[in-house]
Please model this.
Amino acid sequence: MPLFRRGRNDEPAADGAVDEAATDPAGGGATAAATAPGRPTGPWDVDDVDDEVQRLDLGAIRVPVPDGCEVRIDVQDEQVVAATVVDGRSAIQIHAFAAPRKEGIWDEVRDEIAESLRSNGGSAETADGPFGRELRARLPAPDPSQGQQPARFIGVDGPRWFLRGLMTGAASTDPHQARRLEDVFRGVVVVRGGEAMAPRDLLPLRLPKDAMQQLEGAAQPEPEPDPEPQKPTLDMLERGPEITETR
Model:
């Protein structure tokens, strides 16, 4: 799991429907942006944002990293699936999914998460939060002796995308400690792209270029006659190389 410092997996299955906006000659972006609920101040579609905030470019999402926070890149089945921003004893894991052009999916997904949690020994209740309706949950701990762990699921429907955040640690119950991670989520920019994707498919993420360059440098063998440079592989990523970003 690559790690990025500045100063200091459970995605829903595709339902098989194809995103109709990808075949719309006009792109559908303006109409979808106008009808997508819950985004008056972010998260942002790439076509909507115009600021000078520095963000970590992970392909389909660009994530702001406040001073003192770190970003962990989550890899599953040899694919980058999420980014987790860690702030002390709190963290928010961010997933981005494709969504239909004409309607959001958060209401449906929220109900599915709540049902799954309850059937697996956890609990969840719907509450109002800074991004609209969210889930206040308690997750079964891997070690039963540790009881349940508090968590918050937040979601925002955008134009042909859906962004979900899972907040854990102190920020899941303390509004004051949650504020900075909420600002991170609010500042995410989604780059949906125009390709056809089934709703609920994960949007493709990648490591930033500087991380790939550092991995390439770390992976090169000792000099030999006519060496063939060793390319980074996802096996390396799963072993958890650490990449430090400072400013």
Remarks:
- Residues 3-206 form a domain with the Protein Transport Mog1p; Chain A fold (CATH 3.40.1000.10).
- The helical segments are 29-35, 106-119, 175-186, 209-219, 234-239.
- The mean pLDDT is 79.
- The longest helix spans residues 106-119.
